[in-house]
Specification:
- This is Ankyrin.
- Keywords: ANK repeat, Repeat.
- By secondary structure, the chain is mainly alpha-helical.
- It folds into two domains: 51 residues, no CATH class; 78 residues, Serine Threonine Protein Phosphatase 5, Tetratricopeptide repeat.
- It is built from nine helices and no strands.
- α7 runs parallel beside α9.
- The protein starts with a helix and ends in a 7-residue tail after the last helix.
């Protein structure tokens, strides 16, 4: 299934899914089929054959946070419309809003805000999404005020 997704062969992926391929399987890179899906078409196909769309890879990556980090706004909208919780978090306790703020993705942050995220959610370092732009600035300056 992973190979079918990577090689953009939806017909083969569909056959594998219909034959019972495990959508929670992870590859050697710790990716699940859902975290590899980079288009709405692929994601809809995987969700259709999955009991849970909130599948995590062995590294804890979650489709919504991975999709945010990759900058795919259309796919983020689709995942949210399918019921993925806006407050889901990765193993470092970073939410999609953390990733949007970290990468300066204002449009993503606005979409998440409309979904009612926990604005005070802290990652494992105690940082909220409001701290994230500062963390990126710190790389290029002496720090934040």
């Amino acid at each position: 299934l992973h190979i079918a997704i990577r090689s953009s062969t939806p017909d083969i992926a569909r056959l594998l899914l219909e034959a019972g391929a495990r959508v929670s399987a992870v590859d050697c890179g710790r990716n699940t089929p859902l975290t590899l899906a980079v288009s709405v078409e692929w994601t809809k196909l995987i969700i259709k054959h999955s009991k849970s769309f909130h599948i995590t890879g062995k590294d804890g990556s979650i489709a919504l946070t991975r999709t945010t980090e990759n900058g795919n706004l259309e796919l983020v909208r689709m995942l949210l419309s399918e019921g993925v919780p806006v407050n889901c978090a990765d193993p470092q306790s970073r939410t999609p809003l953390h990733f949007a703020a970290m990468h300066g993705l204002r449009g993503f942050a606005e979409i998440f805000y409309r979904e009612g995220p926990n604005m005070n959610a802290q990652d494992n370092d105690g940082w909220t999404a409001l701290h994230m732009p500062c963390s990126e600035t710190k790389k290029w300056s002496r720090g934040c005020a």
